[in-house]
Design brief:
Layout: H1 2-17, H2 20-37, H3 44-49, H4 51-82
Helix pairs in contact: 1-4, 2-4
């Protein structure tokens, strides 16, 4: 049980290092700065078609999916511990 508890604590620390809200903020800051650099501020079509924006969004979505998987693993560990 101590091993499982240690895994839970470690996983909570890891997950909380980069919370989704913080990642969301970083994503929008990057996109806004990119649009300003390209002189396309507010141009939603640019965001939808620009390779840089698409790659950044894919990375953001992938990271969120990864966090969801980690949270599900954490849930399983907690369930193991309380059995």
């Amino acid at each position: 049980k101590y091993v499982i508890l240690d895994e839970i604590i470690t996983m909570i620390k890891y997950i909380s290092e980069k919370l989704p809200a913080e990642m969301h903020k970083d994503y929008y800051e990057f996109i806004n700065n990119h649009l300003i650099e390209e002189d396309k501020k507010g141009d939603i079509e640019h965001v939808k078609t620009c390779d840089i924006c698409i790659i950044r969004k894919s990375g953001f979505v992938s990271t969120i999916d990864s966090r969801i998987d980690e949270i599900n693993q954490l849930k399983q560990l907690i369930e193991q511990l309380i059995k």
